[in-house]
């Protein structure tokens, strides 16, 4: 995905988030930080779009600094062992989140992990994607929050064992 497409997608998400935030505050009668109505939407959209404009550059930089070059090829038991490693490191990776009772919802080699598997390939290339397991976890104590109760990590096998190398969500 080129930078222009990433920026457009990021700006579109920022715009939708701003509209939803301002509309939700106005609909619930909550006090928004600033004026209500079209002025607030425009101001929020401008702030979020400006903040998100730097993300494509950061994502591009992450491509070269985060990718696990020393990752080893996966074995037959790698999916299970990667899931175990993700569970073991959940509390350290997500401070401030109640991780007691964490469950693995899905763990697949990146080639079979749908959009998140494709994300690995875009971030780091085919070689790293072939050596990565995408693990999706549920933090049941954080329900009903859809965002806080879910986690997605990328795990690879290294000489020292299985390790989370990227937190996707």
SSE layout and pairings?
Blueprint (H helix, E strand, L loop, with lengths): L2 H26 L9 H15 L2 H11 L12 H16 L9 E7 L4 H11 L1 H5 L1 E7 L11 E9 L2 E7 L2
Antiparallel strand pairs: 1-2, 2-3, 3-4
Quick tags:
single chain; disordered N terminus; 18% strand; 2 domains; 6 helices; four-stranded antiparallel beta sheet; 169 residues; 4 strands; alpha+beta
Please, could you describe this protein's structure?
The structure is a single chain. The protein has six helices and four strands, in the order H-H-H-H-E-H-H-E-E-E. Mean pLDDT is 73; it is low at 1-64. The protein is an alpha+beta fold. It has a four-stranded antiparallel β-sheet, sandwiched between helices. It has two domains: 3-65; 78-167, no CATH class. Strand 3 and strand 4 (161-167) form a beta hairpin.
The termini sit apart by 20 Å
Task: Briefly note the structural class of the backbone.
Answer: alpha+beta
Quote the average pLDDT.
Answer: 73
Major sheet details: 4 strands, antiparallel
Beta-strand percentage? 15-25%
Strand order of the largest sheet: 1-2-3-4
Rg calc: 19 Å
Question: Roughly what percent helix?
Answer: 40-55%
Uncertain stretches: 1-64
Task: Work out the number of β strands.
Answer: 4
The count of helical stretches stands at: 6
Net shape: globular
Give the tally of structural domains: 2
How do the helices and strands follow one another from N- to C-terminus? HHHHEHHEEE
